[in-house]
Specification:
This protein is mostly helical. It is built from 14 helices and no strands. The radius of gyration is 18 Å and the shape is globular. It starts with 12 loop residues before the first helix and ends in a 6-residue tail after the last helix. The structure holds fe (ii) ion (2 copies). The site of one fe (ii) ion has 5 residues, from loops.
């Protein structure tokens, strides 16, 4: 049964139109095909420096006005933890991929989850993490992507970003959780950054709470399910370093 068959309420067309597109269709999208052609080796090898130290040692810098513009959105769903940490991973992945458009990656990363502040807060965990079926395809996740694009279109023009840049940001926000196929290197680096936060201690703690699981089970799940989803080799190296460090720190070989 698809999500659309179990919907308990009327949804706007901007949500249902996205939910009705199959993942195979995304994979055949010209943008996905062009990206796959351009980067046939997976995970994508790094072109620059790869830093696998704990992420706290290299926070992101800059974009102060953008951060100030989204302070209300940081108050939802631990975004005041999630967004800066994901941004720090994004900056690191951009160091590993100097061929990527760094500004696009950073702005899209900073904004990617701001839409959580504009959805029904009571459904974020119950549907977005613990609902029946594929949690990544929960209705609330499509809603947070659409709302995140609205935030981008509201705040970016006033900060000097032109329309085509704003639309490229929105293309990355749109489907960042719900679409399997990445459309560009920048899209891929945002996705990897978003996943990498889960390997750091703050992300482990929040995710254990959201998914309702224990540390050793969660660490095993990261290794088995999330590492294979990473698109960049730099992301894989960072993830593996964090798994090793945090398994040792949390004594998961004993406490299981
Ligand atoms: Fe998200
Ligand atoms: Fe996120």
């Amino acid at each position: 049964m698809s999500n659309t068959e179990t919907l308990p309420r009327d949804l706007p067309e901007e949500i249902t139109s996205r939910m009705s597109v199959e993942q195979e269709t995304h994979a055949r999208d010209p943008r996905a095909l062009a990206f796959a052609d351009a980067y046939p080796t997976r995970p994508i090898p790094a072109q620059g420096k790869v830093n696998t130290d704990p992420i706290a040692t290299t926070p992101s810098t800059g974009h102060d006005e953008l951060w100030r513009a989204i302070i209300p959105e940081t108050r939802s769903r631990a975004n005041d933890l999630h967004l800066p940490i994901v941004a720090a991973f994004a900056a690191r992945l951009c160091d590993a991929h100097p061929e990527a458009d760094r500004e696009l990656v950073m702005v899209a990363t900073i904004l990617h989850d701001t839409g959580w502040a504009h959805v029904d807060q009571s459904r974020i965990v119950s549907e977005g993490f613990r609902g029946s079926g594929d949690w990544r395809q929960a209705v609330i996740r499509f809603e947070h992507e659409v709302e995140g694009m609205k935030v981008a279109r509201r705040v970016l023009p006033g900060l000097g970003y032109d329309e085509s840049f704003v639309e490229r940001v929105c293309e990355i926000i749109d489907g960042h959780d719900t679409r399997k196929a990445a459309f560009s290197l920048e899209d891929a680096l945002v996705r990897d950054s978003d996943r990498l936060w889960r390997f750091d201690q703050a992300g482990i703690a929040m995710s254990m709470e959201w998914f309702g699981t224990d540390a050793s089970s969660y660490m095993a799940r990261l290794d088995a399910e999330i590492v294979p989803e990473l698109i960049s080799a730099a992301g894989v190296a960072m993830a593996r370093a964090d798994i090793e460090r945090n398994n040792a720190l949390l004594r998961t070989e004993v406490i299981r």
